[in-house]
């Protein structure tokens, strides 16, 4: 029985959980020193996907809650230290929280993307959380925003319109992106295949750095980006938001409207967003046909009751992205790049997704069940008829049963499976049509004693690939392949909280990644990358041996962390070319075209590095935030650097928040982004990049529009209009052409963004 036919049977089995009764919880939030009430404090219960805000007297009520079980409750308010507390709902009484005033950031934050939802301070995984406020900072897409906020995260870019996440030097199918609890599937093996997610949907994002294969299977060998939408508001509430921004560099307009509500446990949400940009401007001119536009709609219908929750999420994302098919000697820039009409070639990408997310109380434990279906259609157009057209349909299941905690022991067991089918509907062919089936099972246990926690887990995975044979005009295009891979992965972690100032965490484990169908069977021109790709059906799985450790500290005016990591990968897979390896073919117009040939192969690789942050807050109105990261990657098989590795970077931001009469949350900030020279390259097909520094600044405040807050901001990036090439830009010299290694496109120049954000309450 396939996954898609088992969904209804499983749901019928789970119907009895709806018999559990509902409960209500009331409480109050006060100042720990003055004992005065704290109005506007946010109380969230992530495991139940619900949130509320205290009223003018600091009081709150949350309805339709379980009448038993232990859950993490997080309380936050501006100017106070966040509080995370475990609450047993079977114990009667109100929930009262006393917050300590503080002008520093802390590591007291809940992480949901790890096997057991926990306070980050007691969580061994190297995790970072990007809040809604930080996500509102101007960026061209979600991954672009994360790369500026989280140490160890960077991006492979094809101009501002396409960003692929890189975590600690690893990307492509080595990083899992989650949305609505379901892995995002969008042919992510491609260099210029971005993440098809509306950046405005995210209420917060958790970034798990390091191998997360224990929970997420084969493709999480590098890390996980967990995108979380807004939690359901308290019962009787209807609220929403409107946001809009405009950026001068490429005319990017970004607008989004959202409404959400809760009526006695019936919860709902709807959002619509639209982005449009013309070609991006470099210090040398507008890069030809680099504009893009996207439209997205998403929604949720669900129930939050005493038996848990069940939410049906659905989304549609359509992205159009222009490309420029050029050869050395062709012009790259124009002075007239403000047309919003995209020329050919271009991409037309459509992502449809349905996810059913459930958390049921069963007996003394709970079952978390996520079911998903998504269709990804990727068209690469030379004219109105698609040349390449991939149509990928994926069904997925992820189930985890949480046993009750006993004497500090927290065990869980889980199973996961997926069934994917990709077909070719274009006139040209790059990868064969394929079927892919995966299945996995894991066990995990966490032990807490005093200020220590220890966790350990094992997982078994099975991956089956079936690439289809294809003949074109009587000639064999794809030979076809059938293979399967299996593996046992293991991981262990440890944390120790020395005191309120210092804590330590460490992890070690092994993981694997099965070759994807593109690596196994490619044979054709990839229009978006202007190269000819050749797969290898004899590839073996990658095997990773990873360890990391970090110290986190914070007291009074200083907080921060520093971590080190190493990841040795046996049979690391990547595509490379050598000078002179070319192929000449006849295109659809009958003309001859020559392409560099990139072939997939394997080496042993060792990646290690350091990342951290240092935040200094001498007063409540002055903040100096600094992050840094560096990855050293070596091709051990050929004793040379590994390709496509980010340069070391230091981000410095000075933020001034004076009290200004008539204004709320007023701030002025200035920043420096310092990128190191990247000379550790694979010289057979890469060129080095120089160091550079970008100067940024922003100003913003909040006004009262009636009873609603209206946030206004202006942000400038690369204010000196610096000419530079980023080490991970696909348009930089050496990436566009092997014939002329000086032929490349500068990164975007000066950009000023004007933005507004209006959250509002209807009732």
From TrEMBL:
What SUPFAM superfamilies does the record tag this protein with? Answer: Carboxypeptidase regulatory domain-like, Porins
Signal peptide range equals 1-21
Source organism, top-level taxon: Bacteria
Q: Which CDD domains match?
A: ligand_gated_channel
Report the InterPro entries cross-referenced here: Beta-barrel_TonB (IPR000531), Beta-barrel_TonB_sf (IPR036942), CarboxyPept-like_regulatory (IPR008969), Plug_dom (IPR012910), Plug_dom_sf (IPR037066), TonB-dep_rcpt-like (IPR039426)
Stretches assigned to coiled coil: none
Q: Which residues form the TonB-dependent receptor plug domain?
A: 124-224
Membrane topology type: Multi-pass membrane protein
Q: Which UniProt keywords apply?
A: Cell outer membrane, Membrane, Receptor, Signal, TonB box, Transmembrane, Transmembrane beta strand, Transport
- Main location (coarse class): membrane
Q: What Gene3D superfamilies does UniProt report for this protein, alphabetically?
A: Carboxypeptidase-like, regulatory domain, TonB-dependent receptor, beta-barrel domain, TonB-dependent receptor, plug domain
The TonB-dependent receptor-like beta-barrel domain, residue ranges? 246-719
**Where is this gene product found?**
Cell outer membrane
UniProt record similarity statement: Belongs to the TonB-dependent receptor family.
Protein known as: TonB-dependent receptor
Organism from which the protein derives: Mucilaginibacter jinjuensis
């Amino acid at each position: 029985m396939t996954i898609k036919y088992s969904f209804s049977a499983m749901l019928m089995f789970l119907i009895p959980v709806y018999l559990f009764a509902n409960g209500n919880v009331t409480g109050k939030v006060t100042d720990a020193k003055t004992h005065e009430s704290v109005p506007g404090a946010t109380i969230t219960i992530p495991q139940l996907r619900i949130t509320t805000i205290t009223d003018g007297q600091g009081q709150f009520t949350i309805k339709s809650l379980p009448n038993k079980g232990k859950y993490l409750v997080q309380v936050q308010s501006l100017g106070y230290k966040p509080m995370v507390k475990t609450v047993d709902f079977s114990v009667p009484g109100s929930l009262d929280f006393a917050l300590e005033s503080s002008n520093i950031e802390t590591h007291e934050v809940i992480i949901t993307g790890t096997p057991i939802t926990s306070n980050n301070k007691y969580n061994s995984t190297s995790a970072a959380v990007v809040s809604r406020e930080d996500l509102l900072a101007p960026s061209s897409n979600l991954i672009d925003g994360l790369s500026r906020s989280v140490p160890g995260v960077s991006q492979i870019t094809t101009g501002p319109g396409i960003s692929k996440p890189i975590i600690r030097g690893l990307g492509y199918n080595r990083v899992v992106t989650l949305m609505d609890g379901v892995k995002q599937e969008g042919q992510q093996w491609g260099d210029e295949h971005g993440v098809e997610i509306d950046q405005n949907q995210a209420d917060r994002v958790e970034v798990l750095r390091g191998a997360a294969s224990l929970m997420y299977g084969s493709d999480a060998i590098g890390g996980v980006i967990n995108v979380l939408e807004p939690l359901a508001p308290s019962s009787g509430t209807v609220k929403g938001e409107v946001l809009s921004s405009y950026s001068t560099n490429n005319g990017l307009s970004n607008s989004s409207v959202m409404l959400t509500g809760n009526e006695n446990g019936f919860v709902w949400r709807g959002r619509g967003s639209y982005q449009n940009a013309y070609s991006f401007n470099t210090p040398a001119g507008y890069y030809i046909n680099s504009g893009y536009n996207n439209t997205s709609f998403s929604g949720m219908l669900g129930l939050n009751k005493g038996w848990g929750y069940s939410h049906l999420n659905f989304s549609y994302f359509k992205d159009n992205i222009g490309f420029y098919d050029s050869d050395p000697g062709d012009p790259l820039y124009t002075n007239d790049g403000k047309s919003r009409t995209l020329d050919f070639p271009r991409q037309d990408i459509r992502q449809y997704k349905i996810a059913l997310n459930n958390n049921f109380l069963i007996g003394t434990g709970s079952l978390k069940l996520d079911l998903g279906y998504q269709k990804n259609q990727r068209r690469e157009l030379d004219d109105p008829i698609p040349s390449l057209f991939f149509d990928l349909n994926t069904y997925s299941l992820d189930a985890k049963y949480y046993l009750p905690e006993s004497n500090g022991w927290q065990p869980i067991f889980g199973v996961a499976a997926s069934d994917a089918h990709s077909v070719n509907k274009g006139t040209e062919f790059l990868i064969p049509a394929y079927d892919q089936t995966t299945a996995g099972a894991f066990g995990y246990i966490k032990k807490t004693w005093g200020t220590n926690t220890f966790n350990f887990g094992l997982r078994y995975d099975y991956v089956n690939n079936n690439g289809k044979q294809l003949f074109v005009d009587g000639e064999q295009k794809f030979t076809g392949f059938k293979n399967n891979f299996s593996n046992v992965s293991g991981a262990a972690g440890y944390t120790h909280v020395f005191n309120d100032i210092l804590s330590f965490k460490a992890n070690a484990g092994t993981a694997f990644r099965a070759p994807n169908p593109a690596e196994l069977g490619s044979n054709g021109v990839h229009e978006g990358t202007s190269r000819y790709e050749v797969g290898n059906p004899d590839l073996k799985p990658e095997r990773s041996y990873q360890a990391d450790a970090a110290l986190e500290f914070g007291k009074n005016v200083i907080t921060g962390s520093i971590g080190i990591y190493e990841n040795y990968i046996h049979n690391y897979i990547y595509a490379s070319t050598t000078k002179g390896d070319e192929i000449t073919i006849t295109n659809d117009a009958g003309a001859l075209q020559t392409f560099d040939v990139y072939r997939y192969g394997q080496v042993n690789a060792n990646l290690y590095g350091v990342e951290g942050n240092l935040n200094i807050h001498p007063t409540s109105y002055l903040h100096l935030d600094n992050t840094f990261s560096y990855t050293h990657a070596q091709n051990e098989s050929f004793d040379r650097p590994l390709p496509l590795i980010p340069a070391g970077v230091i981000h410095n931001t000075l933020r001034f928040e004076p009290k200004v009469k008539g204004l709320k949350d007023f701030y002025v900030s200035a920043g420096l982004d310092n990128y190191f020279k990247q000379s550790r390259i694979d010289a057979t097909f890469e060129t080095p990049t120089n160091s550079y520094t970008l100067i940024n600044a922003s100003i913003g405040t909040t006004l009262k529009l009636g009873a609603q807050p209206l946030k206004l901001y202006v942000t400038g990036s690369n204010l000196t209009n610096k000419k530079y090439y980023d080490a991970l830009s696909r348009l930089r010299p050496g990436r566009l052409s092997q014939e002329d290694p000086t032929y490349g496109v500068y990164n975007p120049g000066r950009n000023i963004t004007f933005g507004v954000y209006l959250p509002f309450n209807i009732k």
